[in-house]
Amino acid sequence: MRYLSLQWIASSFGIPYATDPAPDDPISISRAEFESAYDEMVEAGITVKPDREQAWIAFSGWRVNYDTVLLNLARFVEAPPVPWVSDRSPLRPEQIYSLRQAAATRLGRTSAKSKRRRRPRDSHSPLDVGES
Questions:
Q1: DSSP string, 58-69
Q2: Are 8 and 46 contacting, i.e. CB atoms less than 8 angstroms apart?
Q3: Dist. CA 81–CA 25, nearest whole Å
Q4: CB of 84 closer than 8 Å to CB of 105
Q5: Which of 53, 69, 51, 60 is nearest to 9 (CA)?
Q6: Is there a contact between 69 and 6 (Cβ–Cβ < 8 Å)?
Q7: 66 and 74 in contact (C-beta within 8 Å)?
């Protein structure tokens, strides 16, 4: 359930995501890309699920939980191009979340927090020793 940590991070920046996607919702990885990676793993001697169809269903069924969150976070932190993450963008324009939107979300939360009681400007910090 590591995808929950990605969702938690996305929530803290106000990045929207589907909270309960269907296992067959679209993802950014194509079946052809998956097949290619599957073949590479077999050629490298890596143990894979013997039933390709079941492997695809399992992979895409889990990926859908974090796909757009991962892609938006990669964009957000300007991750270098790597396959299946920062080499693509979310499926639909409405799923793209910008740095500007995140900043506005964070500023909105910060301004709500800033209404807390603050120390008066003329009061001195304990670190101001010897200054008057």
A1: HHHHHHTTTHHH
A2: no
A3: 25
A4: no
A5: 69
A6: yes
A7: no
- The model carries a pTM of 0.62
Contact 97, 106 (CB under 8 A): no
| Closest to 3 in 3D by CA, of 67, 58, 55, 54 | 67
Long-range contacts of range 28-32, CB-CB < 8 Å, 24 or more positions apart? 28/67, 28/68, 28/71, 28/84, 28/88, 28/89, 28/90, 28/91, 29/59, 29/60, 29/63, 29/67, 29/84, 31/56
pLDDT in tens, 52-107: 999 999 999 999 998 888 888 887 777 777 777 766 655 455 556 565 666 666 55
For residue 54, the tally of other CB atoms under 10 A from its CB is 10
